[in-house]
Amino acid sequence: MGFISLNNIFSARVNWQKSTLVNFKIDGQVDIWQVNVSENLHLINNFLAVLSPDEILRANRYLRREDRDRFVISRGALRHILAGYLVVQPAEIRFELESNKKPFVVYPAEKILKYNLSDSEDYVLIAVAGSAVGIDIEYIKPKFYYDSILPLNFNQREVDYIQQEDSSFRFFTLWTRKEAILKATGIGLTDHLKQIPSLDGKFTVDGDLLATGNDWQLMSFVSAPDYIATIAVDPKIKAYNFYGFNSGEFFN
Length: 252
Description:
By secondary structure, this protein is α/β, with parallel strands linked by helices.
């Protein structure tokens, strides 16, 4: 596949706009949606109502109530958001898995729309674009002991960077970058994480490592207090739009 470039950048905390401002058109931009789980728990039956039988079965496999609720809200919100772009009812959307296990919309047939979802603790992020996209969000755990996994997943420059002040923030920033690009390319977790550059800057990478011949831009941002996220997109993306999911605006 030849060599590709990864451009890693960091943005200050973003401004989440009201969902009433979105036009639900794919026009060279990426739309990033943030869903607060706890703020939507009182409407969980509305989210549950649009899920498929398979999704309900998956939800019921979770042992912890918190995990089940997060799954229901994340999948329900995904359906409501995609329905706006696809101009169908949320329950009508059907998903299938590609050969690499990455989900896609099979009905209605819409080759332009691509999406990706990530969740952590009390937040869900959903990215929608006209080309492949990957997103990852992580709660910055204050007592997460990651020292033992550093040598396996980060090169020495990255390890040195992480081990400075604000080490938890630095660790999760770099981790979301590796996760986001893997989700964008659809290869999932790999034994080659150490070889995927995650520091700020532009890097040249063997495309075979990520099973892609495309260049990528990765933008990290603070999505909420104590949460860090990264989105991986085509460098040709024109704009990044950030929207807060307000269930009242979708269910009325």
